[in-house]
Amino acid sequence: MHHDSIEAWQHGHVFLGEKHEHNERRTRLVVALAAAMMVAEIVGGTIFGSMALLADGWHMATHVAALAIAMFAYRYARRHAHDGRFSFGTGKVGELAGFASAVILAVVALLIAYESLARLATPKPIDFDEATAVAAIGLVVNLVSAWLLFDEEHHRAHAEGHAHRHDSNAHSAYLHVLADAATSVAAIAALLAGRALGWIWLDPVVGIAGALVIAWWSWGLMRAAGAVLLDLVPSQWLAQAVRERLEVDGDRVADLHLWRLGPGHIALSVAIVADRPQPPGTYKQRLVPIQNLSHVTVEVHACPGHGARG
């Protein structure tokens, strides 16, 4: 075959999500917002001698780090999408970043729980006015960031059970700002109640509750991203649908592998045993109605006593 015909028979391995560049842009904007808030809190806490402000600034720094990982993952995956060193493209870079962010989220939960338990054991006086103002500013920044990162299609796909369409990188970034927003809401409620009723203990109790919620989110994200990294079958329903379309006219599926390559991209490798083997293209044609099958490899074998094709 002549080299000038390569494009006609080769196929690419770019398995990035449909909204990859859009998610990259909005994540970059959120990183800028979070970083500005972090610097303001750390500088302000240092100048005004506020431990509450300083602690919140360093807490924000962990989220900035996680968001920066998400931003870098988008950039790296896009720049190396055509790099032949990646056998199945760079679609899983986002999953790796999502898993790393989930670990950071878990660390944040542990730190919040530790600090809350320490304050519960040894209560410290709280400057309610200053702390409430800081929490309110942080809440506004995080609500804006969450609005920028919210993906309605992602949540619809999750509700419908289409996990293979999820972008764990985008979801991890969203969870980080949502976790910050949730802790800000809880902190404001606890501070207002503490100021009105004198319940200083309420602030660390709410902190512990918030840490448990963040830990739960972290675990869910770890499971989702880890499943993709370990090549778990994206959906048993999808595997059954593939079998039903291939196992006709006496053909049988001898070996079936399904795994996710990137958001909305599924790979399929299947071996078929048939009495009357057909060319691989015939079997691929049967799979056309199934969405998101982006890389399909078909191997055909004849039953004993019959010739093999494919």
Say which CATH homologous superfamily of the largest domain is assigned. Cation efflux protein transmembrane domain
> What is the overall shape?
elongated
CATH architecture of the largest domain: Up-down Bundle
- Going by helix content, strand content and strand pairing, the class is mainly alpha
Task: Summarize the helices and strands and which ones pair or pack.
Blueprint: H1 6-9, H2 20-48, H3 51-79, H4 93-121, H5 128-149, H6 152-160, H7 168-197, H8 202-229, H9 236-246, E1 252-262, E2 265-274, H10 280-286, E3 293-302
Parallel strand pairs: 2-3
Antiparallel strand pairs: 1-2
Written account of the structure:
β1 (252-262) and β2 (265-274) form a beta hairpin. With 310 residues, the protein is mainly alpha-helical. The chain has two domains: 3-229, Cation efflux protein transmembrane domain (Alpha-lytic protease prodomain-like, Up-down Bundle); 236-302, Cation efflux protein, cytoplasmic domain (Alpha-Beta Plaits). It has helices spanning 6-9, 20-48, 51-79, 93-121, 128-149, 152-160, 168-197, 202-229, 236-246, 280-286, and strands at residues 252-262, 265-274, 293-302. It starts with 5 loop residues before the first helix and ends in an 8-residue tail after the last strand. It contains ten helices and three strands, in the order αααααααααββαβ. The protein has a three-stranded mixed beta sheet.
